[in-house]
Design brief:
Number of helices: 0
Distance between the termini: 22 Å
Radius of gyration: 14 Å
Shape: extended
Structural class: little secondary structure
Helix content: under 10%
Number of strands: 0
């Protein structure tokens, strides 16, 4: 957020990991809330 890393996940389970596919943004159920996204960027890693 605002240029700061908030989360980093590394999944090494070959059965479920994917090299390509869809990127999704998830909101969990709960009390009413508002979620906004702006200027999302994706950076390819080596």
């Amino acid at each position: 957020i605002n240029g700061e890393l908030m989360c980093e996940v590394e999944d090494n389970d070959a059965k479920y990991s994917r090299k390509s596919g869809i990127i999704a943004l998830q909101m969990h159920p709960g009390p009413p809330m508002k979620i906004q996204f702006r200027n999302l960027r994706i950076k390819m890693l080596d």
